[in-house]
Amino acid sequence: MASLPDTESEPQVDTQSESRTKRAALILNPVKPTTEDIRAIVTELSLEKGWQEPLFLETTADDPGHGQAREALKADVDVVIAAGGDGTVRCVAEELAGTETALGLLPLGTGNLLARNLDIDVDDPRGAVEAALGGTERLIDVVYVNVDRAQDAHVFLVMAGLGFDAAIMADTRDDLKDKVGWLAYVDAGIRNLPGKPSRVRITLDGRRRINGRLRSVMGGNCGKIMGGLEIFPGAKLDDGLLDVMTIAPSGAFGWFAVLGKLLARGKGKDPSLEYYQCKTAEIEVDSPLEIELDGDHLGKGRHMALRVEPSSLKLRMPYGKKDPAILTNPIP
Length: 332
Ligand SMILES: [Mg+2]
Fold this sequence. Notes:
Elements: H1 16-19, E1 24-28, H2 38-48, E2 55-58, H3 66-74, E3 79-84, H4 86-96, E4 102-107, H5 113-117, H6 125-134, E5 136-147, E6 154-156, E7 159-163, H7 164-171, H8 174-180, H9 183-192, E8 198-204, E9 208-214, E10 216-220, E11 242-247, H10 254-263, E12 273-278, E13 280-293, E14 296-317
Parallel strand pairs: 1-2, 1-3, 3-4
Antiparallel strand pairs: 5-6, 5-14, 7-10, 7-13, 8-9, 8-13, 10-11, 11-12, 13-14
Helix pairs in contact: 2-6, 3-4, 7-9
Bound molecules: magnesium ion.
């Protein structure tokens, strides 16, 4: 029989979780160009804060982030820093969504739309690591996507598309992307402008039905793309709502009308561009169309089921941003 403690005044609380030294995992996409030594920055700032040596993991062509994120979760780290583009972030988030483990963003490369939508500086790796280790936390929605009724769902954080926009992603030349950045998408966009609309059936929240001949259907969790353009005006990452956009240019000047309404933030009566909000969306086409999630080309599909999961991903943010959704206390 264990002897009782001498006094009752000292409660035997489990202080292990409190005193355990914290640890970050860095999941790095080694293909992304950077002049900084990302590993050295994460190590230096971790040790400075009294954290353990970080866990270093690299993405590969075969595993762009899932296995690495699962390994980080198994190692029970306190934060997982995704260093790469939106593709890396998306794969890591697919594993972290629904867990208590926070995601930190270290933007590398050209796009980084999630970081831009969160107003995170995309050119400050050191600041990004500081925010990941000691910033504030906020919860954001993720959107689950099942393609062709597959059991396994993907997630996206920024936007997904079926049709024209996904064809652009599939067609964008990597060599051009390295040279001219996002202008490479414009090149692919112009090449894909001609083309036939598809008959599309959309069901929102299991009730509202939209039928039409469309070039593209997009789902948005947030709205900003490059060049300051907001293609889902007012879309919020934490409102529990999915924004849906349909694109149906008609006639010789159809694409001008689409662009005009985009630039007018959706205002106007032109039906070539329409917006909806919902919690779930089902999109069906007769013949397979290209699909993209956060810029990752997924291949072709005929059916896409989208479902927003509110506040299901914990994100580390730079401390001090004036956003009411952000907690006011820094991470201890
Ligand atoms: Mg939303």
